[in-house]
Amino acid sequence: xxxxxxxxxxxxxxxxxxxxxxxxxxxxxxxxxxxxxxxxxxxxxxxxxxxxxxxxxxxxxxxxxxxxxxxxxxxxxxxxxxxxxxxxxxxxxxxxxxxx
Length: 100
What we know:
- The protein is an alpha+beta fold.
- The chain has two domains: about 5-40, no CATH class; about 55-85, no CATH class.
- The chain is built from four helices and three strands.
- It has helices at about 20-30, 55-70, 75-80, 85-100, and strands at about 5-10, 15-20, 35.
- A three-stranded antiparallel sheet has the order 2-1-3, with no helix packed on it.
- β1 (about 5-10) and β2 (about 15-20) form a beta hairpin.
- The mean pLDDT is about 85.
């Protein structure tokens, strides 16, 4: 059976109770003064590394495909970096289309 931690609002204490999952709902209804308490120090870290979430190459491929389907989106500009040659070619095409 798991242990559940509660904050007792009547006396401002943290209490722990061992309850089965089926007992939990009944216990909460019978004890409205107890509020479920989650201690941040006991929660395991879900993200490792410094500077945010590390994305694998599979996720980067998915983002790249989404960006290709939406060429004018911010996502496409961030994910699918263009080479200097691609940028210059697009500028020439745009210049010639504007002359017409």
